[in-house]
Every structure is written in C-alpha cells, then in structure tokens.
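job 3f2a | input accepted
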Amino acid sequence: MNITLLKGFSETYWFTHITQGWSLTTETTFYLLAPFIFLLLNKLKLLWQAFILIATGIVLTFLFGFFNNESKFFGSYHFTMVVTFFGRCVEFFAGVYLALFLKKEKRLSSIGISFTYSGLVLFLASAFALSSLKGDHISGLATPTGVAINNLVLPLFSFLLIYGLMVEQTFIGKIFPSKFFKWAGNASYCFYLLHLGVYFSFIQQHTNSYILNFLIILTSSFVLYLFIERPVVKYIRKRFETG
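job 3f2a | predicted structure (243 res):
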C-alpha cells in the first residue's frame, strides 16, 4: 500500500513507513481527478464540485463501514475529512480558483485594508484557534471545530494572503523574494522529507524545544538541497539536454 500510495486511504496504515507519504495520496488523487474537474468547470462551479467531493467522501466512509477489516479504508468520518482529498479538496480548489481568477486579470473589490496583512492576521488567528482547541487531544485537528477551521477557513484566508502578495506592494511582499526565502522554497521538499520519520524522531529524542527542532530540520534541509538535490537535478537536466 505504500508503493501504490493506497495507504493514504487506510486509517490503519496511513502513517506507516515513509510517514509523510500519506499526503502524496491526497495530492495524487487531485492529479487524477484534475482533468475531470477542469472539464466540468463550465457546467459546475468549483464550489459545487467541492460539495460533491465532500459528500462522496462521506458516502465512501459510510459504505466502507460495512467492511470491518484491518486496513480500515475510509475508516472514520474524521479520518476522511482530515487525511483524504475528499475532505481537503477546498484547499486545492482555493489554489485553482486563485489561478483562474488572476489568469482572467480580475481583481477583488477593495476592503479598505491590505489583503496581504488581513490575510496574514486571519491566517495566524486561525492557527492560534487550532492550537487553542488542542486540549487533551494530539492537536486541534482532533476536534470537529478544528477540522472545519483547517479545511474551510484556512484555505479562504490563505487565498487572501497569497492574492495580496501577488497584487499588492507591501513590506511582507518584499521579504519573500529575498535570498533566504528563495533558498527556503528550494529546500522545501527536503524539509518535507525530514520533518517526520527516523531523522526527526532522533532529533526529538535529544532536544526538548520545538524551535530548536525546527531550526535543525531547516538547516539540514538546506544542506540536503545544496549537496544532494541540486547536484542531482543539474546532472539529470544535463543528461537530457545532451541526449
């Protein structure tokens, strides 16, 4: 199930082996459905498509509930909403809508304040709300309210933030093109690979600080990108260019 990426549909195995690989199932599901999503755009708006996909996830969870097996495919409504594309489709659709919106050279009506700063403040407020909902749970996502904030509210505020960064001239907008953030963007896949798993567990066992953990993983990501990913990418491109 890890090799085929089916583990991302299994409540038993979604966090096994290459732990962060669960998100690849979510992304691959979007890639497979994307042609149909775009083909339907003229007849069915993204909002309605999101409703249909979320409803599909609920129906699949209900149907798989009749098969009480070890793998627990679509094992619970909470799992479906938090882990699978059917629950998280609004995040993808927010990005799709923003791309189509800007492609048509449309602009949002002014709200009297910066979209960048309002989006950032609301985004951070949502993150704070999620952390406040944690309680005795492993995270705020363990609660229904947390799922609603993560799956529906955060995509909206992310839309505002990214839209603002693309159309407004702000101090924050000048920070992101800096060399550090460009390097951070280039090393983001390495960060993704290191932020969970054996290496992360080793660091966690020897430190008691989330901030220190983050800095170690970030530094390691830069090193991994600089000495492994970038040279390999250059080598592959050179081989293809020379035939």
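job 3f2a | The chain has three domains: 1-90, 107-176, 178-243.
job 3f2a | closed
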